[in-house]
Amino acid sequence: MYKIIGADQKEYGPVTAEQVRQWLAEGRASLQTKILPEGATEWKAIGELPEFAAALPGPAPAMLAIPTPSPAAAELVKGPAIGLIVTAILGGLLQILSLIFNLAGASFLASSQMPKEAWANMFSGTVAVVSSIIGILVSGLLLFGGLKMKSLESYSLVMTVSIIAMIPCFSPCCLIGLPIGIWALVVLSKPEVKSAFH
Known about the structure:
Blueprint: E1 2-5, E2 11-15, H1 17-26, E3 34-37, E4 44-45, H2 50-53, H3 71-111, H4 118-122, H5 126-150, H6 155-166, H7 174-188, H8 191-196
Antiparallel strand pairs: 1-2, 1-3, 3-4
Helix pairs in contact: 3-5, 3-7, 5-6, 6-7
């Protein structure tokens, strides 16, 4: 015997397992409806009880089915995802080195009396430090996007990250980022890949 909580938040029962199956078939209850088996102290979703998990015809209930990405789609995104991750790591390391160099170099150049060229001033000091910090943040975004792509999650984020990877002087590693970004966009535009994302 079972008690259930209806859509109106009222308690019904005790009812038999057969009555619960009938309510499921009629749509009066769902696999998410709360149920309390006789003798139990904790309310559960009907779909959590093995005797009702297969009560609905058709495909396995969404709450019980663990989504598994299509093997073909997972294989297709593997290369560009790793490419985005490598681009992000290389770009991040270069930006960290640039930041350290600029912070250390700024104090060295400030103490020296050497004349500086105008173009050298542009790439040193505060502008260079801010540029390095932005580069580190972009590298982090590319890394996050590459990991999401590998696990077939957040399609729109991965598309955005692929486009960012292609932008020269904004991507942390523009020479590597351009072909990797194009590769990622080509793979992401395939229907079987797009449909595999969740």
